Amino acid sequence: MRTWLVVLLGLTAICQAAMLPSATVPDGLGINIHFTGEPARDLDLIQAGGFRLVRMDLSWEAVERTRGVYTFDAYDQLTAGLKKRGIRPIFGLQYGNKLYEQQEYAVATDAGRQAFARFAAAAAARYRGQGVIWELWNEPNFDNFWKPKPSVDAYMQLAKVALPAVRAADPTATIIAPALATIDLPFLEGCCKQGLLELVDAVSVHPYRQTMPETVEEDIQRLRVLIARYAPDKPNLPIVDGEWGYSAVWAGFNEARQGQYMARQMLTNLSLGLPLSIWYDWHDKGLNPSDPELYFGVISIDYQPKPNYLALQRLTLALGGMHFVKRLVSSPEDYLLLFSDNTHWTLAAWTTGAAHPTTLWPGQFLTLSGDPLYLSVPATAKEMRAEGAWTATPASFGITSGTHATRLAPAVTVRVRNPFHRAVAVKIDIPAQENLVGRLSDAAPFVLQPGATALRQWSAGYPPRRDRDAAVTLAVSVDGVTRRQTVRFQPVNPVVLHTVDMDARHMGVQVAIPTDEPFDGVLMMYPDAQKTAVRLQVHPATREITATYKDRVLPCIHTNGGVVVSFPEEVDWAHQPVGFTLSEGAALVADSGTAHMRPLEVTTKTATALNDGDGNVRATFTLEDLQSPPEAPVTTAIRLNYDFADGWKFVRIAPPALVPLDGKPRAIGVWVYGNQSLGYMCTRVTDATGRIYQPVFGQLDFTGWRFLTAPLDDPTVYHWGGVDTTTGITYPLSVNTFVCVDSTKKAVKDTVTFAGFQVMY
343 and 300: one domain? Predict the structure, then answer.
């Protein structure tokens, strides 16, 4: 009976054109394929596995082999075969056509864009009313799929022509884009600036990683904040996982782990509200373990179900017809996800830590491991049902302040549904607010009848601080069972202050502040005895920032991360920790916190570039000193010129011996002139036990100067070697490597410049 119901739900979803899949399992779970036509064996196995979506390229060159003539026969057959089985297609409109373009993986001319739009419109018209979800391109931010190199401008030129053509051909069409490789926020922000969010029904990303699936949560949160910034009228525009998988032959992986991660990937996406999740890939492609690309499939080369196929079957059998309710309170490593169809309740439970025994309700004992368990929640599990009776949903995770404050205000809807066969008492409290002042629409306790639902709204004024998150904690009691939930908001127009060491005579502060809104405030160095009030102004008309101190204009060096205000020499800062505050009127806007910096001398005399990574990968590089680099915030710098072939390769700029650090430093900072190579930067320090820690500066996904920091006081940072019998970092620390530049495993030839290395206390 359950199997029949799942198929029926899939058919219902297909009939709902211009809609993303419902939140009911398994409507939003799908698989990527590489075939057309109607191969019964494949399609029957896909249906039996529990997949209700199929993603497939709809290749322009395959459809239009003669100018103006479109041949859809193979896709017609595939669409018909999917429809018979209650499976909805996602067709990617993509790739070039040599009838119009020289490049196979790009559309670069006006004539090509117009021709692509005609092809896209023809496809939308042909499959109108059949529930197709249209996706524009595949990973346009990856040089394998957009030649000669990715370009926001080129992609958006195509999107602005092709997507309106799809919408005109089928006003009910469901459109997703831009199908990015990884959650590439810089590329996506470039698309947002050019209007992508006005053209789509959802933002599609491919959140590939070799870490645990649960790590996607923070990335999705940042993506939601970005969407809220550029689409404040629809801050909850859906995010979809258009493609994501794990190879069974990656280092540290096997088919068993691949199966674990598939189930956890799908469950995590459901818990984050992603209405669509596509696993890559359907079928293993070969038998060469040295090529990970061959081993993403859910069935083997000889059509045998793999553990990940069986994991999806178990998930859909256990949760079919249900929707996600909430993650229950537990330790950070344990995941207890509650699902319900409003009559029955099922718990999906696993841990990202070591396997351990637990009791989830009286009389029930089990061991949590990395394999999700599916447990029917009995009527006797009163506390669990009471906790699952309510949810707290933010209007937007992103919030605004300042002159744009009216666009996104902090708000939370509390929804309570009585799951019991008797009336229950409900009470809602707000025990804590951080950087907020708000109130509940109705704080009086109430009684809820069986099956009844009640809504309460919490809303806040605007946070006075623009340099930090805001949060509200709700405590809800249902039938005497009280649980808490904290909803955290992030500013979409933040102000950021960094104290920076300019040189031996100057202290400076880096200020990142939106330049599209007026600002007139005071920047102050503390301790207050300095009396260093600097007027800081933002002029939206010119997008300029000016700083004035005692009627003289201070130098402002414009960088990728804002501006650096250089304080005059008479300001004495060298003998004590200092910090900066930024105020507007009576409101404190931002506070850098106190900082004491120790400069690190990094030149060709004190550091060497070392070849590291796969020794079989070709790499050449040179290191050179620079004096007075253009537009730099400091007077000297060091430049790395590098040329990496395809493969795992990185270069370390390291001292000849460990550099000891006094005390307990909190971070290491450096000015970096980015080059959009997308490589990663990190540093390495060794603690007193010999353990090597590798804190991360970030990705080289920008151009121009930016001040980056890597934490030195985070014990959870990846480490290896030494004595591991104690927990946490054992001081003192020593610098092992000033900076590593790591490739993306793709060939790259470029330069990156560093300046002003400093240890921050």
Answer: no
